[in-house]
Amino acid sequence: MRTLLLVNSSASSVTARGRVVIQKALSADHDVTLAETSRRGHATRLARGAATDGVEVVVVLGGDGTLNEAANGLAGTRCALAPLPGGSTNVFARTIGLPNDPIEATGVLLDSLARGSIRPVGLGSVNGRYFLFHVGMGYDAAVVAQVERRETFKRYLGHPLFVYSAFSAWFRHYDRSRARFTVRHDDGAEVEAAFAVAFNTNPYTYFANRALDVAPEATLDRALVALTVRDLAFAKILRLARAALSQGSGGSKVRRLRFVDYRTDCERFTVTGHGPFPYQVDGDHLGDTERLELRHEPDALNLVLP
Hints:
This protein is an alpha+beta fold. The protein has ten helices and 16 strands. The strands form two sheets. Strands 1, 2, 3, 4, 5, 6, 7, 8, 9, 10, 13, 14, 15 and 16 form a 14-stranded mixed beta sheet that branches. A two-stranded antiparallel sheet has the order 11-12. Helix 1 links the parallel strand 1 and strand 2. Helix 1 packs parallel to helix 5, helix 2 runs parallel beside helix 3 and helix 6 packs across helix 8. The longest helix has 15 residues. The relative contact order is 0.16.
């Protein structure tokens, strides 16, 4: 099988030795070409070029941002995407059931390719850009922006950096005194919000080995889940985090919170800002905007699944 191994060497858990081991393992049964990303957006162009050239599978060794870029290059083509965890959190790779160690995950991937375990899955889109697992709007994106400001420490600090950034954003870098945008649904409902997330999969993220279970109805075979938080009072954010961390019942506890609006199977909705607000896509901060259009895109991507 013609395969492109697409590597982000600057990702948190990618090492030169690991890359060599993975390339050799894939090459035992497949025709493998190696390419490395060198700048933002490069993975999209490399993946799209591979699909045009008749490559059958693009294996991505990198973090969630690199994986998102590759998915945007492959969506709508016959070429399949195969994730390998190479970042600090690896939300999507872990969500579909891969081990968090890239070498172990390579063994699982090879078994999947041998079985032909490839099928089309749904994606979300925001202003025309595809996303694999979620889009965060407002406070969530402000946290990601703080993490990216300290990108050089991400490889070494990992999850403590996210915790620090969450407090830093809440106290100093996000205006939580008012609603920042309005979420409008197809049924006419309008929700004033300080923070919102559109989910294509669950969990929201991982804290070490603990999943933040927020939207269990969000799967690759269903439309989006929209979670909108009306109030960012500190006590309420702590209640939201505690509910999400509840093993096996986080989703049901989150939706019962009175300051949360929770909707499943959303084919589309819009978010209109009361001025600019930050947003992030699959863990990449994309700056500020004043309007987002979110949609569910069924069967948009061929995905290699464990």
